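Exercise: predict the fold of this chain.
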Amino acid sequence: MTEKLTARDVIRMKAKGRRIAMITAYDYPTARLADEAGVDVILVGDSAA
């Protein structure tokens, strides 16, 4: 697992003009692959709950 970002970290990234990669993952394998790929923010969506 990569280092976790806080909301403050994301705000700083935005202020510096850095692009922020975000993705929605609907299952564990997708979330894991996104994390390994270095995606900055992963929204885990589970509509089955």
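Check your answer against the key: The CA atoms of residues 29 and 35 lie 10 Å apart.
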